[in-house]
Amino acid sequence: MEDKLNTLCVDDTLYCTKVPEDRSIKETSGILNPYEIRAIIPGTVVELMVKKGQKVSRGQVILILEAMKMYNELEAEIHGNIEKIYVSSGDKVEKDRLMVRIGKL
């Protein structure tokens, strides 16, 4: 296996990192924003686990998305407060639809 060299930008500082091939980053159409919970695939919002203004922790389940008869728990990537909720239980969503925005603490 060959390690892949990646660059990571944090607070306007670039860092070079080596990532083992089995852990390499998938190519995406854009930069992922950890403050946004987006639909990973088209589906239906089954349950919202948070309310506006609620404090959340990294790894906390934000909502459950049903797609292809599978339930997907979408988790917070960061600590923060729920800033805005754009969906309700029962809503059908397309891939990449913004569903929840998390604000900084």
Helix content: under 10%
Distance between the termini: 40 Å
Under CATH at level 1, the class stands as Mainly Beta
Instruction: Give the amount of beta strand, in percent.
Output: over 45%
Mean pLDDT, nearest integer? 85
Question: Any idea what the CATH superfamily is called?
Answer: RNA polymerase II/Efflux pump adaptor protein, barrel-sandwich hybrid domain
Global shape: globular
CATH topology: OB fold (Dihydrolipoamide Acetyltransferase, E2P)
CATH-defined architecture? Beta Barrel
* Biggest beta-sheet profile: 4 strands, antiparallel
State the helix count: 0
Tell me what you see in this structure:
- The protein has a single domain (29-103), classed as OB fold (Dihydrolipoamide Acetyltransferase, E2P) (Beta Barrel).
- It has no helices and ten strands.
- The chain has strands at residues 4-10, 13-19, 36-38, 43-48, 55-56, 61-67, 70-75, 80-85, 92-93, 98-103.
- The strands form three sheets. A four-stranded antiparallel sheet has the order 3-10-8-5, with no helix packed on it.
- A hairpin with a 2-residue loop joins strand 6 (61-67) and strand 7.
- The radius of gyration is 16 Å and the shape is globular.
- The model has no long low-confidence stretch (mean pLDDT 85).
Topology:
Elements: E1 4-10, E2 13-19, E3 36-38, E4 43-48, E5 55-56, E6 61-67, E7 70-75, E8 80-85, E9 92-93, E10 98-103
Antiparallel strand pairs: 1-2, 3-10, 4-6, 4-9, 5-8, 6-7, 8-10
